Amino acid sequence: MKADVTTLSAEKAGTIDLSDGIFGLDPRADILHRMVNYQLAKRQAGTHATKGRSDITATKKKMYRQKGTGGARHGAKSAPQFRGGGKAMGPKPRSHAIGLPKKVRTLALKHALSSKAKESNLIVLDAAKADAPKTKGVRDTLKKLDLTSALIVDGAEVDTNMSLALRSIPNVDLLPVQGINVYDILRRDKLVLTKSAVEALEARLS
Protein backbone atom coordinates (compact mmCIF):
# COMPACT_ATOMS: atom_id res chain seq x y z
CA MET A 1 0.00 0.00 0.00
CA LYS A 2 1.13 3.54 -0.71
CA ALA A 3 1.04 6.49 1.68
CA ASP A 4 1.74 10.16 1.19
CA VAL A 5 4.80 11.63 2.86
CA THR A 6 4.38 15.09 4.31
CA THR A 7 6.63 17.67 5.92
CA LEU A 8 6.12 19.47 9.20
CA SER A 9 4.93 22.42 7.12
CA ALA A 10 2.04 20.24 5.84
CA GLU A 11 3.53 20.10 2.35
CA LYS A 12 3.60 16.91 0.28
CA ALA A 13 7.03 15.30 -0.01
CA GLY A 14 6.34 12.28 -2.21
CA THR A 15 4.98 8.83 -1.40
CA ILE A 16 6.21 5.72 0.38
CA ASP A 17 5.37 2.03 0.05
CA LEU A 18 4.07 0.48 3.28
CA SER A 19 4.19 -3.26 3.82
CA ASP A 20 0.76 -4.90 3.68
CA GLY A 21 1.95 -7.48 6.20
CA ILE A 22 2.49 -4.72 8.79
CA PHE A 23 0.14 -1.88 7.89
CA GLY A 24 -2.54 -3.72 5.91
CA LEU A 25 -3.86 -6.31 8.36
CA ASP A 26 -7.45 -6.52 9.54
CA PRO A 27 -7.12 -5.38 13.20
CA ARG A 28 -8.23 -7.85 15.87
CA ALA A 29 -9.51 -6.29 19.08
CA ASP A 30 -8.85 -9.43 21.14
CA ILE A 31 -5.11 -9.39 20.40
CA LEU A 32 -4.86 -5.66 21.10
CA HIS A 33 -6.78 -6.14 24.35
CA ARG A 34 -4.43 -8.90 25.50
CA MET A 35 -1.39 -6.78 24.72
CA VAL A 36 -2.68 -3.71 26.58
CA ASN A 37 -3.47 -5.87 29.62
CA TYR A 38 0.04 -7.33 29.41
CA GLN A 39 1.66 -3.88 29.32
CA LEU A 40 -0.42 -2.35 32.12
CA ALA A 41 0.03 -5.39 34.38
CA LYS A 42 3.78 -5.43 33.82
CA ARG A 43 4.25 -1.80 34.81
CA GLN A 44 2.45 -2.15 38.14
CA ALA A 45 4.90 -1.63 41.00
CA GLY A 46 3.56 -4.45 43.17
CA THR A 47 5.07 -2.87 46.29
CA HIS A 48 1.88 -2.96 48.39
CA ALA A 49 2.36 -4.67 51.75
CA THR A 50 0.75 -5.00 55.16
CA LYS A 51 2.06 -6.37 58.44
CA GLY A 52 0.99 -9.83 59.49
CA ARG A 53 0.76 -10.94 63.10
CA SER A 54 4.40 -12.07 63.02
CA ASP A 55 5.50 -8.56 61.98
CA ILE A 56 3.72 -6.71 64.80
CA THR A 57 5.77 -5.50 67.76
CA ALA A 58 3.68 -6.73 70.68
CA THR A 59 4.16 -8.91 73.69
CA LYS A 60 3.87 -12.62 73.10
CA LYS A 61 2.74 -13.16 76.66
CA LYS A 62 -0.67 -14.76 77.13
CA MET A 63 -3.17 -11.94 77.62
CA TYR A 64 -5.18 -13.55 80.41
CA ARG A 65 -5.72 -16.91 81.95
CA GLN A 66 -6.98 -19.75 79.80
CA LYS A 67 -10.11 -20.57 81.80
CA GLY A 68 -12.65 -18.74 83.85
CA THR A 69 -13.05 -15.48 81.91
CA GLY A 70 -16.10 -16.50 79.89
CA GLY A 71 -14.39 -15.19 76.73
CA ALA A 72 -12.39 -16.68 73.91
CA ARG A 73 -8.96 -18.13 74.65
CA HIS A 74 -6.27 -15.85 73.20
CA GLY A 75 -2.53 -16.30 73.29
CA ALA A 76 -1.17 -13.03 71.81
CA LYS A 77 -2.29 -9.44 71.30
CA SER A 78 -0.89 -9.42 67.75
CA ALA A 79 -3.84 -11.50 66.51
CA PRO A 80 -5.80 -9.87 63.61
CA GLN A 81 -9.02 -9.41 65.61
CA PHE A 82 -7.41 -6.96 68.04
CA ARG A 83 -6.82 -3.28 67.42
CA GLY A 84 -3.15 -2.88 66.50
CA GLY A 85 -2.89 -6.53 65.53
CA GLY A 86 -1.59 -7.93 62.26
CA LYS A 87 -3.57 -7.99 59.02
CA ALA A 88 -5.01 -11.39 58.14
CA MET A 89 -4.01 -12.52 54.63
CA GLY A 90 -2.98 -9.00 53.56
CA PRO A 91 -1.16 -8.14 50.32
CA LYS A 92 2.56 -8.78 50.00
CA PRO A 93 5.08 -7.44 47.44
CA ARG A 94 4.76 -9.38 44.19
CA SER A 95 4.98 -9.06 40.45
CA HIS A 96 1.70 -8.47 38.59
CA ALA A 97 3.24 -9.38 35.23
CA ILE A 98 1.40 -11.92 33.11
CA GLY A 99 2.84 -14.07 30.35
CA LEU A 100 2.28 -13.40 26.67
CA PRO A 101 4.17 -15.18 23.86
CA LYS A 102 6.62 -13.07 21.88
CA LYS A 103 4.84 -13.92 18.62
CA VAL A 104 1.58 -12.54 20.01
CA ARG A 105 3.31 -9.36 21.17
CA THR A 106 4.82 -8.87 17.72
CA LEU A 107 1.46 -9.54 16.06
CA ALA A 108 -0.24 -7.06 18.39
CA LEU A 109 2.14 -4.31 17.29
CA LYS A 110 1.34 -5.06 13.64
CA HIS A 111 -2.39 -4.92 14.37
CA ALA A 112 -2.01 -1.61 16.23
CA LEU A 113 -0.15 -0.11 13.25
CA SER A 114 -2.75 -1.53 10.86
CA SER A 115 -5.62 -0.10 12.92
CA LYS A 116 -4.21 3.43 12.59
CA ALA A 117 -3.67 2.97 8.86
CA LYS A 118 -7.19 1.60 8.37
CA GLU A 119 -8.72 4.54 10.27
CA SER A 120 -6.68 7.00 8.18
CA ASN A 121 -4.98 8.16 11.37
CA LEU A 122 -1.46 7.33 10.16
CA ILE A 123 0.78 10.17 9.02
CA VAL A 124 4.24 9.67 7.51
CA LEU A 125 6.70 12.55 7.94
CA ASP A 126 9.92 13.00 6.04
CA ALA A 127 11.60 14.07 9.31
CA ALA A 128 10.67 15.25 12.82
CA LYS A 129 13.17 17.98 13.55
CA ALA A 130 12.86 21.46 15.02
CA ASP A 131 15.17 24.42 14.40
CA ALA A 132 15.03 25.48 18.05
CA PRO A 133 13.68 24.03 21.32
CA LYS A 134 10.74 26.44 21.32
CA THR A 135 7.30 25.11 22.24
CA LYS A 136 5.38 27.86 20.46
CA GLY A 137 6.93 27.14 17.07
CA VAL A 138 6.35 23.41 17.33
CA ARG A 139 2.77 23.92 18.57
CA ASP A 140 1.99 26.07 15.53
CA THR A 141 3.52 23.40 13.30
CA LEU A 142 1.37 20.67 14.85
CA LYS A 143 -1.76 22.77 14.29
CA LYS A 144 -1.07 22.75 10.54
CA LEU A 145 -1.12 18.95 10.64
CA ASP A 146 -4.15 18.88 12.98
CA LEU A 147 -2.21 16.98 15.67
CA THR A 148 -3.89 17.59 19.02
CA SER A 149 -3.50 14.01 20.23
CA ALA A 150 -0.62 12.16 18.63
CA LEU A 151 2.26 9.76 19.10
CA ILE A 152 5.30 10.77 17.05
CA VAL A 153 7.82 8.01 16.40
CA ASP A 154 11.24 8.91 15.02
CA GLY A 155 14.27 6.81 14.13
CA ALA A 156 16.82 5.32 16.52
CA GLU A 157 17.50 8.79 17.96
CA VAL A 158 15.04 11.64 18.42
CA ASP A 159 15.84 15.25 17.66
CA THR A 160 16.81 17.05 20.88
CA ASN A 161 15.12 20.33 19.94
CA MET A 162 11.89 18.53 19.07
CA SER A 163 11.98 16.53 22.28
CA LEU A 164 12.45 19.64 24.43
CA ALA A 165 9.74 21.58 22.59
CA LEU A 166 7.15 18.80 22.91
CA ARG A 167 7.56 18.35 26.67
CA SER A 168 5.15 21.19 27.42
CA ILE A 169 2.50 20.14 24.88
CA PRO A 170 -0.20 17.86 26.35
CA ASN A 171 -1.38 14.69 24.59
CA VAL A 172 1.59 14.64 22.19
CA ASP A 173 4.37 12.11 22.79
CA LEU A 174 7.70 11.57 21.07
CA LEU A 175 9.44 8.18 21.09
CA PRO A 176 12.40 6.59 19.32
CA VAL A 177 11.41 3.65 17.15
CA GLN A 178 12.72 1.09 19.65
CA GLY A 179 10.24 2.45 22.23
CA ILE A 180 7.10 2.06 20.11
CA ASN A 181 4.42 0.03 21.87
CA VAL A 182 0.76 -0.90 21.47
CA TYR A 183 -0.57 1.01 24.49
CA ASP A 184 0.94 4.36 23.45
CA ILE A 185 -0.25 3.88 19.87
CA LEU A 186 -3.86 3.27 20.91
CA ARG A 187 -4.07 5.98 23.58
CA ARG A 188 -3.48 8.76 21.03
CA ASP A 189 -5.73 9.66 18.11
CA LYS A 190 -2.99 9.98 15.49
CA LEU A 191 0.18 7.99 14.84
CA VAL A 192 3.00 9.91 13.17
CA LEU A 193 5.93 7.93 11.78
CA THR A 194 9.03 9.37 10.16
CA LYS A 195 10.43 7.67 7.08
CA SER A 196 13.33 6.31 9.13
CA ALA A 197 10.84 4.88 11.66
CA VAL A 198 8.92 3.13 8.88
CA GLU A 199 12.12 1.59 7.53
CA ALA A 200 13.19 0.43 11.00
CA LEU A 201 9.75 -1.08 11.74
CA GLU A 202 9.61 -2.96 8.45
CA ALA A 203 13.13 -4.33 9.03
CA ARG A 204 12.15 -5.38 12.57
CA LEU A 205 8.71 -6.88 11.89
CA SER A 206 9.17 -8.44 8.46
Task: Walk me through what this model shows.
It is a single chain. The protein has 206 residues and is an alpha/beta fold. The chain has two domains: 2-45 and 98-205, Ribosomal protein L4/L1 (Ribosomal Protein L4, Chain: A, 3-Layer(aba) Sandwich); 50-90, no CATH class. It is 33% helix and 14% strand. It contains seven helices and six strands, in the order E-E-H-H-H-E-H-E-H-E-H-E-H. The protein has helices spanning 20-23, 29-42, 102-118, 135-144, 160-166, 182-187, 195-205, and strands at 2-6, 12-17, 122-125, 150-153, 172-175, 190-194. Strands 2-1-3-6-4-5 form a six-stranded mixed β-sheet. Helix 4 (135-144) packs across helix 5. The chain is elongated and about 95 Å long. The protein starts with a strand and ends with a helix. The model has no long low-confidence stretch (mean pLDDT 93).
Note the main sheet: 6 strands, mixed
Quickly give the structural class.
Answer: alpha/beta
Q: Whole-number radius of gyration?
A: 27 Å
CATH class of the largest domain: Alpha Beta
Provide the residue-averaged pLDDT.
93
Q: What series of H and E elements makes up the topology?
A: EEHHHEHEHEHEH
- Give helix % range: 25-40%
Report strand %.
Answer: 5-15%
Q: What is the count of helical runs?
A: 7
Shape: elongated
**Count of strand segments:** 6
Q: Report strand order across the widest sheet.
A: 2-1-3-6-4-5
The CATH H-level superfamily of the largest domain is: Ribosomal protein L4/L1
- Please, how many domains? 2
Cα-to-Cα separation, first versus last residue: 15 Å
Low-confidence stretches: none
CATH topology of the largest domain: Ribosomal Protein L4, Chain: A
CATH architectural arrangement of the largest domain: 3-Layer(aba) Sandwich
